[in-house]
Amino acid sequence: QTLQQARDALAAGQHRVAISLLSNQIPADSRFHPEALELIRQAEARRSVETALSQAREKLNLRDFVAAQALVTEALRKEPGHRAAAALQAEIDDRSSATGRQWAAALLGALLAATLAGLGFLRFRRRLEPYFRKLRLAAEPPGPAPLGRGAARARQEPRPAAPPPAPRPP
After folding, report:
1. What is the 3-state secondary structure (H, E, C) of 47-113?
2. Do residues 27 and 33 make contact, with C-beta atoms less than 8 angstroms apart?
C-alpha cells in the first residue's frame, strides 16, 4: 500500500512526498525494500531535473544564456524525454538568437543613419561651407591682422640708436 501511494505521488510530480513515504515507512529488511530504493532513485532523479530546470529558468531571466543552456543540457542528459526541458531549451535558443537579431538591427539602423547624414552633407555642402569656415576660424589661434584694402599697417616702433663708439686713447 505504501509503494502504491509512493508511485501515485511520483506520477503526480510530488517527488519529495514519494521519497518521504519510501524512506520512512519501508524498513530495510522488507521484501519491498529493493523496489522502494528504485522508486527513491527515480524520485531523486526527477527532483534533480526539476531543480536544474528551475535554476535554468532563473538564469534565462537573468539573460545568462550559456548557464541556462548548460543546466537544461544536464537535465536532458538525466531524463532525455523531459518535455519541459525540451521546451525550455527551445525558448533559450529563441531568446539567445533574438539578442543577435537585435544587434544586427541596431547596426543596420546606425549604418542607415550614417548613410543619410553623408548624403545630406553632400547635397547641402555649399550651404554648409560658411558654417564650417566659421568653425575653422574659431579653432585657429589668432595671427597677425590680415592686410587688405584699406587696412592700416601696424606701426613699428623705431629701434633705439646704438650708442656712439667710445673715443680711442692716443
Report:
1. HHHHHHHHHHHHHHHCCCHHHHHHHHHHHHHHCCCCHHHHHHHHHHHHHHHHHHHHHHHHHHHHHHH
2. yes
CA dist., res. 75 & res. 52, Å (int): 6
- How far is residue 57's CA from residue 93's CA, in Å, rounded to a whole number? 13
Q: At 158, which amino acid appears?
A: P
Pair 98, 108: CB distance under 8 Å: no
| pLDDT tens-digit readout, 81-134 | 888 888 988 888 888 776 677 788 889 999 999 999 999 888 888 887 888 788
Decide if 15 contacts 50 (C-beta within 8 A).
yes
